[in-house]
Description:
single chain, alpha/beta, Rossmann fold, 25% strand
Amino acid sequence: MNSLYANKIRLIMHLRRHGISDTNVLAAIERVPREEFVPDMFHDQAYEDRAIPIGLGQTISQPLVVATMSQALELNDRMKVLEIGTGSGYQAAILSRLCRRVYSMERHKPLLDIAEERFRRMNLRNITTLVGDGMKGWPIQAPFERIIVTAAAKGEAPRELLYQLSIGGIMVVPEGPDGTAQTLIKYTRVSDNDFTAQELLPVRFVPLLPNVASESMHMEPDLNKLLAWA
Ligand code: SAH
């Protein structure tokens, strides 16, 4: 048996032991090739339960966190989902198998270009992307039945995002300062102005930052490395 495949089976068992019981989520993790979303030098670690650098100081999230967030969204194939922080595109690819359409926003254009190329190659046609500041959401496409934020909000979750949820909609978002003491929160919009919040688990995400990133070789020495990986 090929060792990546063996590692994948081991990862699925690990996710089940850690509370992932949604069989659609487990099937999506089994089907989407995570090795295609990490730089070549990390291929052999693609099915370990850890975050991996993807360039420009960003990371592809840990599989248990991807699975926990996907499960918390309680998705079905009629839903329209907004993702903030496309990064490698892995979480979007998982969502694309669990809902009708994914709208995914990223503030680093070079990362989005690479993710889009992956979506094309894998023929994932229900993902629409946008370079933009996800803290403002995607008003023209709102409302969304679900929103997932894959970077940590420093204070509270951006209000603009909460108000792009449909009534009954769910948003999952990590909240807290950089690197430490962040908590994954699940919001439900119960009426026009009422939301409930539930703490899910402690997490570590890169920060949610305002505005579109201004990219240049001079300012971003990592870019050469990033492009070499692509
Ligand atoms: N979901 C990703 C993980 C991404 S890491 C994956 O599966 O690989 C978080 C990403 O959020 C980074 O790429 C970062 O650039 C992006 N990000 C941070 N703040 C943002 C914002 N305001 N708008 C859009 N993207 C943002």
